[in-house]
Amino acid sequence: MGNVTSSVAARFAFFPPDPPTYEVYKDGEDDDGRLVFTGLTADKNVRVHLLETKGGNKIVATFWKHPFGRFTILYSHGNAADLGQMQELFIELRAHLRVNIMSYDYSGYGASSGKPSELNTYYDIEAVYNCLKNEHGVKEEDVILYGQSVGSGPTLHLASRLQRLRGVVLHSAILSGIRVLYNVKMTFWFDIFKNVDKIRNVDCPVLVIHGTEDDIVDLSHGKRLWELAKEKYDPLWVKGGGHCNLETYPEYIKHLRKFVNAMEKLSFTKENKSRLGPTDNPDELPIFEELSSGIYVRAVCSFVRKLKIRIKGVNS
């Protein structure tokens, strides 16, 4: 069992850059020294973490703070990159989407210790999510999970276990490891990253982005994942887009911004509904539901004026 799974993973999943494109070291000799990520200056407003996972590995994570960001994107990158290569993208996403970015390197990638495996990626993203909650005070409902290519595996692993996520973005995502290699219709026990099954357990809005000319992960993967999602958001099929260049198309950032804006509106709507009492039924409270409407307020005022006139006529 383990040998077959390892064989699949070796053929598809993990190709960490060798050598890594960055280093992490402590600034100062004491144990409390700040972690420094080579190539990142203080003005970039990035905090570097070294997190221990359930698998016993220490992985590198970076938190890119936006001064006015409400949401945080937890970004799981593709299989042939490390954090050193992702800096420019994170800067662009943070600026254009006005969100915080939490990114990390899988075990065995970059300056993270250990060896890459399917299970380790699950341990990795769990450690990063716990860091977001415990050290940065980020609430589950303010998190958008983002998975690119193989990163869709840990993304859907976590998304299927959390019930109050704000949203999920699947970028050039896979149905499963075996399905990238072979056109099969069933899920085998030795398959890896069984996203085709986990997507059914995701309860938040899902945005799927895929290139129509992706020659590594066929467009059919993205379309099927979108079909299986419970809460579908308008997908983005990038015409002419490949597997590793979707960020270069102008519609990419435009559609992502539209998605984030929609999640903000959805969050505002849910917050307003939550202000109703636990026994209140919105269907039985039309007045309170419509009070924000100027048309309704004007109608009420008009009704009151007419009522006063009628009362005055009766009394005269």
What can you tell me about this protein's structure?
Residues 72-176 form the Serine aminopeptidase S33 domain. By secondary structure, the protein is α/β, with parallel strands linked by helices. It has ten helices and eleven strands. Strands 3, 4, 5, 6, 7, 8, 9, 10 and 11 form a nine-stranded mixed β-sheet that branches. It has a two-stranded antiparallel sheet with strand order 1-2. Residues 276-301 have low confidence and may be disordered.
Please report the distance between the alpha carbons of the first and last residues.
Answer: 93 Å
Tell me about the biggest sheet?
9 strands, mixed
Proportion in β-strands: 15-25%
| Total E-strand runs | 11
- The unreliable regions are 276-301
Please write the string of helix (H) and strand (E) elements: HEEEEEHEHEHEHHEHEEHHH
Note the quaternary state here: single chain
Mean pLDDT: 86
Quick one: overall form?
globular
Structural class: alpha/beta
**How many alpha or pi helices?**
10
Please give the share of residues in helix. 25-40%
Backbone CA Rg = 24 Å
Pfam families: Hydrolase_4 (PF12146)
Protein name: Serine aminopeptidase S33 domain-containing protein
